[in-house]
Amino acid sequence: MSRGFIRVLERLGHEVRVVCRLRSYDRSGDQLHQLRLAHAAAGLANRLSLRLARDWLPDLWFTYHCYHKAPDLIGPTVSERLGVPYVVAEPSFARRRGEGSWAVGHAGSIRALSRADLLLPMTKVDLRGMHAAGSRIKGVVRRLPPFIDTVPFRQANARRFAHRSEVAQAFGLDPGAVWLVTVAMMRDDDAKRSSYLQLADALSRLTAWPWQLLVVGDGPAAPRIRAAFAQFEPERVRFAGALPEERLPPIYAASDMFVWPALNEAYGVVFLEAQAAGLPVVAGRGTGVADVVLHRRTGLLATGGDAVSFANSMMILLDEPERRASMGQAGIRHVERIHSEAAAAHALDAALDLAVARRVRREETGER
């Protein structure tokens, strides 16, 4: 997503430079580590402000994704020192994180969000979070839906039948079967691992249907995930491992259905990629999944965490090829209209004007 923002900003004619590589992410909730990060960031922000003022004065500071586990510890200071607008895309606020293991990171994220001239939440949940933060949020808030470059997926869909032959040969799939595909890292965390395990559970209820599953992804949890799918005949499930991004559009386009429970996930770029390639989606109704998949129009959303509900949703589309086809075409139109880089560029251009206007008002009124 962050690379997507760089592409869209450059598409709008901006010069984009990544000026800081400090990693503020704290996965484990180590408050001492968070304090050390804050101390290191304070010194770095001072040095960076001086260097940018001397060598390359930006017109705006842009931060992608700020929340309690990964607060922006640099942007508020640098933007204030340089007197430039400060923008945060995909901000998140969770009141319950004000106490406990991530209290320090939460405080840092609130400091950043309260200083921002423009906040661009990408899901309805995060938009509600900005409203829940109340008077602490002083900048302009505009929702910007997640987006992708749709071109390679649209091109792949135009060559669907050629890609189907290629993918069948590459992975030993039966062209006469219904191809299910999932694309997800195999991280050893609750979201990814649990989603894979639920998918295996759901598919175990559908062995009477002629499906094959192609899994794209790899990671530390791979042994446990592969073991969960060992219950099926070898030809039922194919593991492609991790693949480069350019190999994904043909795989999506060649398949018949994208399936992923998406437990505890914000929204999932893979759902946009699948729809852009013409695939109907079966997903769990997670935190922001309903923001990117239109239930009963571009896919089916099952009850989150319910393997039976997920299996039933897959069964419906396994039985209805015409519905799969119509949902796939609706998905192409939906992503192109709402979630393409062209749509994002139009919305972001207008939003950045609001950030500049907000900064000017701050200077005129002396607000800090």
Structure write-up:
With about 375 residues, this protein is an alpha/beta fold. The protein folds into two domains: about 1-145 and about 340-365, Glycogen Phosphorylase B (Rossmann fold, 3-Layer(aba) Sandwich); about 150-340, Rossmann fold (3-Layer(aba) Sandwich), CATH 3.40.50.2000. About 50% of the residues lie in helices and about 10% in strands. It has 14 helices and ten strands. The strands form two sheets. A six-stranded parallel β-sheet has the order 7-6-5-8-9-10, sandwiched between helices. Strands 1-2-3-4 form a four-stranded parallel β-sheet. Helix 8 links the parallel strand 5 (about 180-185) and strand 6.
